[in-house]
Amino acid sequence: MTYGVGVLNRFYTWCSPKRKLVIKDGIQWCADVFDKFVVNEQSVDVGDVVVRRYTPAKDGQSCSVIHIYCSEKDNVYFITDPGVKRCATFNIRSIRQSFYSRKRNPNTNDVW
């Protein structure tokens, strides 16, 4: 199985489908990109760790919801591609944000 999350990446006119264009704060983003943690038939040892950093969608957000997706294929590019299914959801609560912690991004550590 291929596992990953859906993210926003920069929108590139030469490769991003127009239907995935999202404009936020004047910046063009490509929605629903499948950010892969592990690819179908990839060898993974017990205890291997994948670390990802995510930026909250809104300033001051107290909780982030991260959906994990899976597919039997390894050549998926979007979470909306045929055969991609949501298989888990993480609710990550942020600690109280102060001036010093405002720029921090929630980390996820996925241990296999």
Describe the structure in brief:
The chain is an all-beta fold. It has strands at 2-10, 21-24, 27-38, 49-53, 63-71, 85-93, 107-111. The radius of gyration is 15 Å and the shape is globular.
Task: List its salient traits.
112 residues, five-stranded antiparallel beta sheet, globular, 7 strands, Heat shock 70 kDa protein 12A, 47% strand, stress response, two-stranded antiparallel ribbon
* Assembly state of the chains shown: single chain
Low-confidence runs of at least 5 consecutive residues: 98-102
What would you report as the Rg, rounded to the nearest angstrom?
15 Å
What class would the helix/strand composition place it in? mainly beta
For the largest beta sheet, what order do the strands appear in spatially? 2-3-1-5-6
Count of strand segments? 7
What is the number of helical segments per DSSP (H or I, 4+ residues)?
0
Q: Average pLDDT value?
A: 83
* SSE succession: EEEEEEE
Protein name: Heat shock 70 kDa protein 12A
Keywords: Stress response
Organism: Caerostris extrusa (Bark spider)
Can you put this structure into words, describing what you see?
Keywords: Stress response. This is Heat shock 70 kDa protein 12A. The structure is a single chain. By secondary structure, the protein is an all-beta fold. Helices cover 0% and strands 47% of the residues. It contains no helices and seven strands. It has strands spanning 2-10, 21-24, 27-38, 49-53, 63-71, 85-93, 107-111. A five-stranded antiparallel sheet has the order 2-3-1-5-6, with no helix packed on it. The chain is globular. It starts with a strand and ends with a strand.
